[in-house]
């Protein structure tokens, strides 16, 4: 004989779902581990930068429109003050951060998309002419400093939009292409090194013995090569953000009035002695903290993958 | 199994490095802020003594010249270095009238106006000891008039000068194809160099009070006093011209006593310098122009109503207040307050943007979804001007893309006409004095810089203006030209900026009449004890 439960069934079921979720989260945290303090700082900085880049522009005024008097101090009306043309500096910094983040992400993704197949093929055909050709070409690209490369490309194409084979390339697209191609050799070397290490593993030999086509074998290898390459890519987002800003600072990036962090800093440099400290310090801090944040998180990711590899 | 977060030695090292970098950046930021908040100190003591000869005069320029040949370039970067080295046949007196310098007298002009004879002063020598003769003058003029030479002076002579020749060692004759009353202005503005230096871009030799003795590419120039100079003894023994691209750095160097003269003072630094002890800031209306040419020969600027809409929709006040801190005059037509033909009463464009009128003209133009590219030269003021104008035009419904170009590509676009609307900053006074030649000439339909504008009335007025030898008649004609060009929105500068030069009180003041013609006149400065 069964007895009816004394309490309704629903509440215990809800509790158990919450418990199950908490338990699962606890297991995940235990598995992943509590982040080191510096990593936590890095995550917080990246999150803050992401909020600035993605959320603030939704509420901020038009970054190109005059919103007050030139060089107003930070106040409740303008949290970061105004620039020399009376534009809201927070809105411009947020728009610049959005551009930097977009360029950073897409240039790294482009670099990865180009480099990963090249690095893996070179490693898979290590010692052959394919490896030689791929790596020598990439070394040639690597030998060209990114800013010299940028000056060359932008000198030829100008800072405006370019039309190539019926396709219009905006300046931000050109910066993405430029940085992506510049980063490619570094990612390819990482991909090649990890592929070389993986192809020496027993499972790859087994797959070959089983007669799997090369494409399938490389697909299996990719699963193991991808995490360290992605971690490396995360680290390079910081470099991409910095490079985009540096190009903007040198007037080789996206032209005005589109705000870029580098462009803002270049303009702000003219007002340092005009007692407009906020103009250069606040956007400068945003850039420094964003780069530091991506570096810390990328570093932590690398460490974790290194340890995973060593286990 | 290792502890989840236990770092290895290598990890600690990398993290330490990052921690250090973060701390250094934060410290640097705070330090930078502290510096920015503090008042700049000055190393300049205000002198009280009498002017004396000798010493080294130090001048800060914003860029180095690509070409040091003043027969190639009329840019201030070339001329402010070489004006003390190579002299002209005539110089400007304090009333902006030409007076003989290398010439012995005013030109003798034939009755038909087509033959000019210029006597030269005897006994003048170049820095290398060669005598200054008519052969050198003729070589310079023919070089400037040669279409295959890179000389910017071709614009001034082409179509007018048939040939320059030396009749004897001290007499030059100029054969013209048509009357050219303005020629003496060109002979006052164009320096004469040694004929062996005509094709040199890295050096210049003239008869001036200083010889160019050292060129540090991209960083500076040294001029030494010419002890055999034919004129009044120049003041300083040496002039050191340093290239300091950053305006703030130039002004700090001036405050610290490392410079005596800072050119191109950024507008935002003017109030800082005016409060600094030992510094004088001079504001003067000089022939400094914001060249502003819409490409009249192609859409959308082939439409008069559209051009006028663009002209009325220009945020002139924004440019005046935000870029020049009020230190400029609202732009109307091509003729500004520093040049012949200026009429302060002529003001078709208001200080405030006339949005209603601009919108009405835009509607009248019939152009749907209007847009164009504004091509500007890459300097701080122009970038700011461009952004303000783009925002202003957006308010009347015109979508404008900004194209920022460095000097070479910008000039290339101007010459080839591959632009919609081009703007640049130019010291026209060094080539044209106060005569407006360079500014107005492109309005003539046959001019190589013409933007596609073809108005027979303007062509005729320009011909008459340059042919006239009577300054009063020229002024009247230029006023008429200015009215037409402003009305047709052919040349529409947003403002006429003033020239701002800051100098240390350790030297005698710069000559105001010469500054009004964009000349620095460095040899006449004297150090004060």
Summarize the structure.
Chain B: Keywords: Signal, Transport. Chain A has 311 residues and is mostly helical.
Explain what you see.
The complex is a heterodimer of chains A (311) and B (529). By secondary structure, chain A is mostly helical. Chain A has a single domain (38-65, 79-310), classed as MetI-like fold. In chain A, 72% of the residues lie in helices and 2% in strands. Chain A contains eleven helices and two strands. Chain A has helices spanning 10-32, 37-54, 56-59, 89-124, 129-143, 146-157, 171-199, 202-209, 214-249, 261-268, 277-310; strands spanning 162-164, 167-169. In chain A, helix 4 packs antiparallel against helix 5. With 529 residues, chain B is α+β, with helices and mostly antiparallel strands. Chain B folds into three domains: 37-62 and 209-285 and 498-529, 3-Layer(aba) Sandwich (D-Maltodextrin-Binding Protein, domain 2); 72-204, Dipeptide-binding Protein, Domain 1 (Dipeptide-binding Protein, domain 1, Alpha-Beta Complex), CATH 3.90.76; 288-497, Dipeptide-binding Protein, domain 3. Helices cover 32% and strands 20% of the residues of chain B. Chain B is built from 17 helices and 21 strands. In chain B, helix 8 runs antiparallel to helix 10 (355-365), helix 9 (316-323) runs antiparallel to helix 11 and helix 15 (456-467) packs antiparallel against helix 16 (471-487).
């Amino acid at each position: 004989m069964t007895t009816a439960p004394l309490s309704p069934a629903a509440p215990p079921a809800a509790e158990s779902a919450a418990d199950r979720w908490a338990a699962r989260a606890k297991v995940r945290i235990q598995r992943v581990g509590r982040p080191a303090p510096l990593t936590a700082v890095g995550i917080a900085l990246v999150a803050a930068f992401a909020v600035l880049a993605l959320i603030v522009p939704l509420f901020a005024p038009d970054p190109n429109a005059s919103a007050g008097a030139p060089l107003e101090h930070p106040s409740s009306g303008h949290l970061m003050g105004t620039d020399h043309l009376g534009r809201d500096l927070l809105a411009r910094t947020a728009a610049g951060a959005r551009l930097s983040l977009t360029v950073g992400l897409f240039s790294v993704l482009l670099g990865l998309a180009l480099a990963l197949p090249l690095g893996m093929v070179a490693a898979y055909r290590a010692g052959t002419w394919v490896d030689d050709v791929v790596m020598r070409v990439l070394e040639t690209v690597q030998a060209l400093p990114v800013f010299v490369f940028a000056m060359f490309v932008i000198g030829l194409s100008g800072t405006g939009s370019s039309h190539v084979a019926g396709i219009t390339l905006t300046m931000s697209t050109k910066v993405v292409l430029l940085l992506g191609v510049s980063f490619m050799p570094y990612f390819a070397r990482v991909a090649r090194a990890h592929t070389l290490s993986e192809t020496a593993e027993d499972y790859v030999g087994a797959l070959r013995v089983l007669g799997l086509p090369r494409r399938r074998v490389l697909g299996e290898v990719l699963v193991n090569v991808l995490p360290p390459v992605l971690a490396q890519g995360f680290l390079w987002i910081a470099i991409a953000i910095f490079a985009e800003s540096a190009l903007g600072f040198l007037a080789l990036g996206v032209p005005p009035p589109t705000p870029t962090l580098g462009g803002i800093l270049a303009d702000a440099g003219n007002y340092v002695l005009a007692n407009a400290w906020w103009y250069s310090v606040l956007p400068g801090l945003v850039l420094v903290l964003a780069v530091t944040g991506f570096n810390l998180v990328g570093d932590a990711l690398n460490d974790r993958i290194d340890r995973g590899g060593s286990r | 199994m290792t502890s989840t977060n236990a770092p290895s030695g290598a990890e600690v090292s990398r993290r330490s490095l990052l921690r250090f970098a973060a701390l250094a950046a934060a410290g640097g930021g705070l330090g930078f802020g502290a510096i920015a908040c503090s008042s700049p100190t000055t190393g300049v003591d205000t002198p009280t003594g009498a002017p004396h000869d000798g010493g080294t005069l130090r001048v800060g320029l914003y860029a180095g010249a690509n070409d040091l040949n003043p027969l190639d370039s009329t840019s201030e970067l070339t001329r402010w270095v070489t004006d003390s080295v190579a002299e002209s046949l005539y110089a400007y007196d304090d009333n902006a009238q030409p007076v003989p310098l290398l010439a012995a007298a005013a030109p003798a002009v034939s009755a038909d106006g087509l033959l000019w004879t210029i006597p030269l002063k005897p006994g003048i020598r170049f820095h290398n000891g060669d005598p200054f003769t008519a052969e050198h003058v003729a070589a310079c003029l023919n070089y400037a008039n040669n279409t295959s030479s890179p000389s910017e002076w071709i614009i001034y002579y082409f179509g007018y000068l048939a040939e320059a020749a030396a009749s004897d060692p001290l007499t030059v004759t100029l054969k013209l194809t048509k009357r050219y009353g303005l020629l003496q202005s060109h002979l006052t503005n164009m320096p004469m160099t040694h004929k062996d230096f005509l094709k040199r871009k890295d050096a210049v030799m003239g008869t001036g009070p200083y010889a160019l003795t050292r060129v540090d590419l991209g960083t500076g120039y040294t001029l030494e006093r010419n002890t055999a100079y034919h004129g009044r003894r120049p003041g300083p023994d040496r002039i050191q011209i340093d290239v300091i691209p950053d305006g703030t750095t130039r002004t700090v160097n001036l405050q610290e006593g490392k410079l005596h003269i800072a050119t191109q003072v950024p507008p935002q630094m003017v109030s800082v310098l005016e409060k600094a002890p030992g510094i004088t800031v001079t504001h003067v209306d000089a022939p400094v122009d914001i060249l502003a040419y819409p490409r009249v020969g192609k859409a959308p600027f082939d439409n008069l109503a559209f051009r006028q809409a663009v002209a009325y929709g220009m945020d002139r006040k924004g440019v005046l207040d935000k870029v020049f801190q009020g230190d400029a005059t609202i732009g109307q037509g091509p003729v500004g307050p520093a040049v012949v033909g200026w009429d302060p009463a002529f003001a078709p464009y208001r200080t405030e943007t006339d949005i209603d009128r601009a919108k009405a003209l835009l509607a009248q133009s019939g152009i749907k979804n209007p847009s164009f590219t504004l091509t500007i030269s890459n300097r701080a003021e122009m970038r700011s001007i461009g952004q303000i104008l783009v925002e202003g035009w957006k308010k009347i419904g015109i979508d404008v893309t900004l194209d920022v170009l460095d000097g070479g590509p910008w000039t290339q676009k101007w010459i080839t006409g591959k632009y919609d609307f081009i703007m640049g900053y130019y010291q026209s006074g060094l080539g044209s004095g106060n005569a407006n030649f360079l500014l107005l000439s492109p309005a003539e339909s046959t001019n190589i810089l013409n933007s596609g504008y073809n108005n027979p009335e303007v062509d005729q007025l320009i011909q008459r203006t340059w042919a006239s030898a009577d300054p009063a008649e020229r002024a009247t004609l230029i006023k008429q030209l200015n009215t037409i060009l402003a009305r047709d929105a052919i040349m529409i500068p947003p403002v006429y900026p003033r020239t701002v030069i800051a100098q240390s009180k350790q030297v005698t003041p710069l000559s105001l009449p010469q500054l009004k013609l964009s000349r620095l006149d460095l040899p006449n400065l004297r150090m004060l004890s």
